[in-house]
User: What shape does this take?
Amino acid sequence: DAGVIQSPRHEVTEMGQEVTLRCKPISGHNSLFWYRQTMMRGLELLIYFNNNVPIDDSGMPEDRFSAKMPNASFSTLKIQPSEPRDSAVYFCASSPPTGSNQPQHFGDGTRLSIL
Amino acid sequence: RKEVEQDPGPFNVPEGATVAFNCTYSNSASQSFFWYRQDCRKEPKLLMSVYSSGNEDGRFTAQLNRASQYISLLIRDSKLSDSATYLCVVNYDYKLSFGAGTTVTVRA
Assistant: This one.
């Protein structure tokens, strides 16, 4: 079975550029999460979608960050304009609809470097 | 105070040894508990769920103490491939709270 698929795997870009990260959750999963991981702050939840609707975006750092989920099989996280402090690994995760206590399954992550 | 606190380690153990570590969590209303494993430059992967009665999965044993709000993981007969960072994860509603991880290094 295909797991959570993220693209790109790596992104290097200059500050000020727009960055778009993509995620395809596991088929049948109705919850989707975007995380950011850094050495200093560990894993942080950025935003949570349930049935394509954003439920909690309190972790989104600032207005430069936005996320969408136009359908059940696709989500994007966009940073515009990007800054060097946005450099991190961004993970997408999904979980099944059988209750809120299900473990989440993570994609391989996007390693983002902003120069 | 962090929601989930873990001893960062590292725990350096020889092959075949037993290693155990735990974590504490602050939200007494937490509903479910997990251990995830993360290898260097990889994504977190579910190792096992943790139940109040304690549970085993091969060489791994997890325990949950709700009264004291701590979770433990024990690895028996450790293998080189067990070298990783182990993340203690606590769930309240939909939200997972991750510990910073305990690093385990198994040496030959």
Summary: Residues 8 and 102 of chain B are 4 Å apart (CA to CA). The first strand of chain B starts at residue 4 and ends at 6.
